[in-house]
Structure prediction request, 129 residues.
Amino acid sequence: MKKLVSFALAALVVCSFSFVGCKGASKSDSPSKVVEKALQCAVDKDYEGMVKYFDDGTGTEEELKQAAALIAMGYEMVGGLKSYEVLGEEIAEDGMSAKVKVKVVNGKGDENESEADVEKTDNGWVLKF
Prediction:
């Protein structure tokens, strides 16, 4: 729960420079694909779907809904996420973590670049909190 709340609060800050279906990552998805799918959920305003890309299996359904609500508030403050572009991906030597560089444009037209941290789990790649 603390991880989810921490992430949700961080997401509110990150929303100002933010991040086809929102079902969660599959085991075969690359780190970049996981980030793309999560960001597409944000564009579609499917914040509950977006949270699934952060779920390492430890969050309860209620915790995930709470995190989604906080993320939604953050995105609403910046007019939502208008568009995104994955600029690059760097997988660590041990193959267990990666950084995905993205460019995002929020609903107010502000454009920013940032990095998303992704980690490999038994269920595939997930965004880190």
Notes: The first helix runs from residue 2 to 14. The helical segments are 2-14, 31-43, 47-51, 61-77. The two ends are 11 Å apart (CA to CA). The chain has one domain: 2-127.
